[in-house]
Amino acid sequence: MPNIFAPLLTSVCAQTTRDLHRRVIVDGLCVGTDEPDAWFPREPPEFTGGSPEALAEKRAAYEAVALDLCGPCPVRAECLELALREEIVLPRTWVHGIRGGTAPWQRLNLIRQRQRAAQREAAGAGRAVSA
């Protein structure tokens, strides 16, 4: 099945960070909202001694809030890309809030996936050069 979002993601990734920031600040639904704290709901704690199922339920509820807040936003993809670029250099404990319709742990997973893909690409390029 073809990825219908591939053209959108390609065009978003091609934009400069400065352009992404400008678009999000100008067109984001969260900008100028009466309730900015809505984008920073209390995150479910990972280490509370609760069951993994309970944590999964709390995370699912948080993720649903993220989708509700950002679902109709016209620059959701741009916001997510901007968040990934900005948060890649941050310590894990500094990544909070809802951005681009995602929870912090979702963005951290995306960042790790990108880093692994870049490492595989670099390793493949190294093998191609030495061959």
Question: What does this molecule look like?
Answer:
- The protein is mainly α.
- It has one domain (6-130).
- Helix content is 60%, strand content 0%.
- The longest helix is centred in the C-terminal third of the chain and has 27 residues, at 104-130.
- The termini are far apart.
- 16% of the residues are buried.
- This is WhiB family transcriptional regulator.
Q: How would you state the average pLDDT, rounded? A: 87
Q: What summary fits the major beta sheet?
A: none
Fraction in helix: 55-70%
Regions with little confidence, pLDDT below 50 for 5+ residues: 1-5
The total of beta strands comes to 0
Q: Helices and strands, in N-to-C order?
A: HHHHH
Number of helices: 5
The number of domains is 1
- Based on helices, strands and strand pairing, what is the structural class? mainly alpha
Tell me the Rg in angstroms: 17 Å
Q: Termini separation (Å)? A: 34 Å
Fraction in beta strands: under 5%
Query: What gross morphology would you assign?
Result: flat
Protein name: WhiB family transcriptional regulator
InterPro entries: 4FE4S_WBL
